[in-house]
Specification:
Belongs to the cytidine and deoxycytidylate deaminase family. The chain is an alpha/beta fold. It is about 30% helix and about 15% strand. The chain is built from five helices and five strands; from the N terminus they run αββααβαβαβ. The chain has a five-stranded mixed β-sheet, sandwiched between helices. Strand 4, helix 5 and strand 5 form a beta-alpha-beta unit. Helix 4 runs parallel beside helix 5. It is globular, with a radius of gyration of 18 Å. The relative contact order is 0.16. The structure holds ligand LCLUPRNS and zinc ion.
C-alpha cells in the first residue's frame, strides 16, 4: 500500500464548501421555477443556519399557488413564499448572527436585505444575481450600512456527490 506524507491539494476552499452547501440546501425547495439556498457561517467558519425558499410552516405545498398571477395576489406564490434567506435567519442555531457571512445562490431581495441588516450580518456572498429593482434596493441598503457583498468566483466548475461511491 502506498503512503503519502503530504496533505491533499484538491480539497474544497471555504467559499466552495459553503456555496456548495447552499446549492445542496436549495434542492429541498418545492418551487418549480427557482430553487434558492442560503447558509450562514460564523467567524469560526461554523455553519449556524441554512434555509431554502418554501411555503410557510403548516401550509400544504399542494394547496398553495406556485405560479405568478399578476391579476390575483391570492393566487401568486410571491404573496406567501418564505425566501431562503429569511428561512435561514429564522432557523439559526445560535443566539445572534452578528459578524456572520451569508452565502446565497441568488442575491437577496429587498425584504430579505432588511432582515440581513437587522441580523448584523457582515458580508453577503452570492452565486447569481438578477437585474431587478429589488436587488438594486438591497445593494443600496447594504452600501448604506457597510455590509459588503461579492459574487462567488468558483475555481472549479462542478462538485460531485456520488451516493454510490465508498467514502
Ligand atoms: N434572494 C431570493 C430571491 C428569490 N427567492 C425565491 C422566491 C421564489 O420562491 C423564487 C423566485 O421565483 P421566480 O421569480 O424565479 O419565479 O425564489 C429567494 O428565496 N431568495
Ligand atoms: Zn427575499
Amino acid at each position: 500500500m502506498s503512503q503519502v506524507d503530504s496533505p491533499r491539494q484538491d480539497y474544497l476552499e471555504w467559499d466552495e464548501y459553503f456555496m456548495g452547501i447552499a446549492i445542496l440546501t436549495a434542492q429541498r425547495s418545492k418551487d418549480p421555477n427557482t430553487q434558492v439556498g442560503c447558509v450562514l457561517v460564523d467567524s469560526r467558519f461554523r455553519v449556524v443556519a441554512a434555509g431554502y425558499n418554501g411555503m410557510p410552516w403548516g401550509c400544504a405545498d399542494v394547496e398553495m399557488p406556485w405560479g405568478k398571477d399578476a391579476e390575483d395576489p391570492l393566487n401568486d406564490k410571491r404573496t406567501f413564499v418564505c425566501h431562503a434567506e429569511m428561512n435561514a435567519v429564522m432557523n439559526k442555531n445560535c443566539v445572534d448572527l452578528e459578524g456572520c457571512r451569508l452565502y446565497t445562490s441568488l442575491f437577496p431581495c429587498n425584504e430579505c436585505a432588511k432582515i440581513v441588516v437587522q441580523s448584523r450580518v457582515k458580508e453577503v456572498i452570492f452565486l447569481n444575481d438578477r437585474d431587478s429593482w429589488q436587488m438594486e434596493a438591497s445593494k443600496s441598503l447594504f452600501d448604506r450600512v457597510g455590509i459588503t457583498y461579492r459574487q462567488f468566483e468558483p475555481k472549479r466548475k462542478t462538485v460531485t456527490i456520488d451516493f454510490t461511491k465508498q467514502y
